[in-house]
């Protein structure tokens, strides 16, 4: 099995890069990694992998990418944290071209299995109005009222996977990721998500002698965050399971954003004043993952403690921040 060709679409990105690294570590010898970004912007780039720079919105590029492939992991999407998705709804929705063409190409290429990375942003907004949130069950995506732009695209693409499975017999698997974080991801530039942004703000304040950091919203919004190693393990478990419907892949360790800031400050050994920016994008008030189904089907759920993952993430972002400051890299 380990010499069959595996495609990671979006392999230059955060999760895709970790997935490629994992396959290499496991001894897979035939990996194709495709991303639209130039190679010097990929978070992880390996010489022994077939790396391809291509725009997977294009059907021909998807055909070339899936040629001879046995498993497709589609992680390619134009995405980012709240600051990006609230201000770039059309760009987010255009990712529908990626998954649509990828499904068509995968069906033509007769791949064995197809994985699609969906998101907790598909869930009905009405179920996420309170900070004191009831964890989201898979059924809570309907009736549909997802995050505008990004969430609608994910919900539509989930259904495309379902209908390609039902009508064309393509084996599709769909996971709804809840906030993934960890090293080798975006931490600056506008697409970063809360855990990385908070680490960067704390590091920046320390390095520049500031005594205050800005927090988006009132900080009372609740979230769960999944460490990247749990995400990779979950992707593989779901891909090779019999789970046909979209399933949550997220941590159920709930925290407030204020709690996350205090955790990062504790890791860094500092305590700053907090300025809450109430007009900044902050997303829904509360969101957590209900892991009943994943535990039932897989006997497993993400379990890496937030504190442990944040310590590793903080250390990595700190090193990257210093490298940028020393002019050793311009990539963030
Ligand atoms: P990322 O932005 O780091 O990775 C996505 C990659 O897709 C990027 O490298 C980007 O260049 C690439 N891409 C975009 N358009 C492309 C195109 N037209 N052709 C080829 N490549 C293209 O994001 P990530 O955090 O690694 O997310 C991976 C997947 O997981 C995405 O589908 C995302 O929507 C989903 N997801 C992520 C999270 C999270 O917290 N990170 C949460 C929910 C869902």
Helices, strands, pairings?
Blueprint: E1 6-9, H1 14-25, E2 31-35, E3 50-53, H2 59-66, E4 71-74, H3 82-85, H4 89-94, H5 96-108, E5 113-119, H6 150-168, E6 172-177, E7 180-181, H7 194-208, E8 212-216, E9 222-224, E10 226-227, H8 228-239, E11 247-249, E12 254-256, H9 257-268, E13 273-277, H10 292-298, H11 306-325
Parallel strand pairs: 1-2, 1-4, 2-3, 4-5, 5-6, 6-11, 7-10, 8-13
Antiparallel strand pairs: 9-12
Helix pairs in contact: 1-8, 2-5, 5-6, 7-9, 7-11, 9-11
The protein binds nicotinamide-adenine-dinucleotide.
Question: What would you note in describing this structure?
Answer:
It is built from eleven helices and 13 strands. With 332 residues, it is an alpha/beta fold. The protein has a domain at 6-180 and 225-249: Rossmann fold. The strands form four sheets. The protein has a seven-stranded parallel β-sheet with strand order 3-2-1-4-5-6-11, sandwiched between helices. It has a two-stranded parallel ribbon with strand order 7-10. A two-stranded parallel sheet has the order 8-13. Helix 7 (194-208) packs across helix 11 (306-325) and helix 9 (257-268) packs across helix 11 (306-325). The chain starts with 5 loop residues before the first strand and ends in a 7-residue tail after the last helix. The model has no long low-confidence stretch (mean pLDDT 95). It binds nicotinamide-adenine-dinucleotide.
């Amino acid at each position: 099995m380990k010499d069959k060709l595996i495609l990671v679409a979006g392999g230059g990105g955060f999760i895709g890069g970790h997935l490629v690294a994992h396959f290499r570590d496991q001894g897979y010898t035939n990996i194709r990694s495709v991303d639209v970004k130039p190679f010097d912007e990929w978070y992880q780039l390996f010489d022994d992998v077939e790396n391809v720079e291509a725009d997977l919105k294009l059907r021909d590029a998807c055909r070339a990418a899936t040629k001879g492939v046995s498993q497709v992991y589609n992680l390619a999407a134009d995405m980012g944290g709240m600051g990006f998705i609230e201000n770039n709804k059309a760009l987010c929705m255009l990712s529908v071209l990626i998954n649509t063409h990828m499904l068509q190409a995968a069906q033509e290429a007769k791949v064995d299995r197809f994985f699609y990375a969906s998101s907790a942003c598909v869930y009905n907004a009405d179920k996420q109005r309170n900070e004191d949130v009831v964890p989201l069950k898979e059924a809570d995506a309907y009736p549909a009222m997802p995050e505008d732009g990004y969430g609608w695209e994910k919900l539509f693409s989930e259904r495309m996977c379902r209908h390609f499975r039902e009508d064309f017999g393509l084996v599709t698997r769909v996971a709804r990721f809840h906030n993934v974080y960890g090293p080798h991801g975006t931490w600056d530039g506008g697409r970063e998500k809360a855990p990385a942004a908070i680490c960067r703000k704390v590091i920046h304040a320390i390095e520049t002698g500031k005594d205050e950091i800005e927090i988006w919203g009132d900080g009372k919004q609740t979230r769960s965050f999944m460490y990247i190693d749990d995400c990779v393990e979950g992707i593989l478990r779901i891909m090779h399971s019999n789970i046909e419907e979209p399933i949550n892949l997220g941590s159920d360790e709930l925290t407030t954003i204020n709690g996350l800031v205090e955790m990062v400050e504790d890791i860094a050994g500092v305590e700053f004043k907090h300025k809450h920016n109430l007009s900044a994008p902050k997303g829904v008030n509360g969101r957590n993952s209900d892991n009943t189904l994943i535990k039932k089907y897989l006997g497993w759920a993400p379990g890496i403690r937030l504190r442990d993952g944040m310590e590793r993430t903080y250390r990595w972002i700190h090193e990257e921040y210093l490298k940028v400051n020393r002019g050793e890299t311009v990539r963030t």
